[in-house]
Amino acid sequence: MTAEQDASDVDLVRRIKRGDDEAFREMVDRYHARVYSLSYGVLHNREDAEEATQDSFLTLYRKIGTFDESKKFFSWFYRVALNAAYSRARRRRPLRTVSLDDYVPNLGGDGHALSPEFAAFVEGAEDGAVARDLAEKAEGFIAELPETYRDVIWMVDVEEMSPADVAETLEISIAALKSRLHRARLYVRQRLAAIAAPAQTGAGARRAAP
């Protein structure tokens, strides 16, 4: 998030506070895709994510007067969006989550000591279908995480938000964010490592077939 973008956001906020509907439409255009993606990261259902996105903008319109203009709008609005997504999630049957302690101890402490099978896959995967399949599985593994871990890995690795912006949005320290992100990545890598070797083997067999 650049200083210019933040200043532009504040300008739109001030116009919305004055009742400028065009400014509100500009804000929707600016943030709809990112809020939808964030909502999908929580809900993993397109219809629910779209409804949560609409809830976020409705809350924005109603509560814009409470926004402190000395703060980053981006972080404030992402907290609004997260709250909307989790509010909708609570109305559904809870998703199954996992204990990271069942998986993380099996990996190296630096987060990069992957199994030889997974390392070989990353370096040598040539089959696009296999790569896409593993990417979809990674998304599913992220969905299994408890929300404190799911939020950080989705924001940093999928949304490509800066760690500083994520920490500010979630109102946690950089150290806490790094710890959660490290454990979440270890879990996803562990799950991918378990399926990468069979997937890669199958792809090699297909390429070798006459």
How would you sum up this structure, described in words?
With 210 residues, this protein is mainly alpha-helical. The chain has two domains: 3-89, RNA polymerase sigma factor, region 2, helix turn helix motif (Rna Polymerase Sigma Factor, Chain: A), CATH 1.10.1740.10; 100-208, Orthogonal Bundle (Arc Repressor Mutant, subunit A). 73% of the residues lie in helices and 0% in strands. The protein contains nine helices and no strands. The chain has helices at 3-17, 21-43, 46-63, 73-89, 116-124, 128-144, 147-158, 163-170, 174-208. Helix 1 packs across helix 2 and helix 4 packs across helix 8. It is globular. It starts with a helix and ends with a helix.
Write the SSE topology.
Elements: H1 3-17, H2 21-43, H3 46-63, H4 73-89, H5 116-124, H6 128-144, H7 147-158, H8 163-170, H9 174-208
Helix pairs in contact: 1-2, 2-3, 2-4, 3-4, 4-8, 5-9, 6-9, 7-9, 8-9
Entry summary:
With 210 residues, this protein is an all-alpha fold. The protein is built from nine helices and no strands.
CATH topology of the largest domain: Arc Repressor Mutant, subunit A
What is the level 1 CATH name of the largest domain?
A: Mainly Alpha
> What sequence of helices (H) and strands (E) makes up the elements?
HHHHHHHHH
Total number of β-strand segments? 0
Task: State the end-to-end CA separation.
Answer: 51 Å
Q: How large is the share of residues in beta strands?
A: under 5%
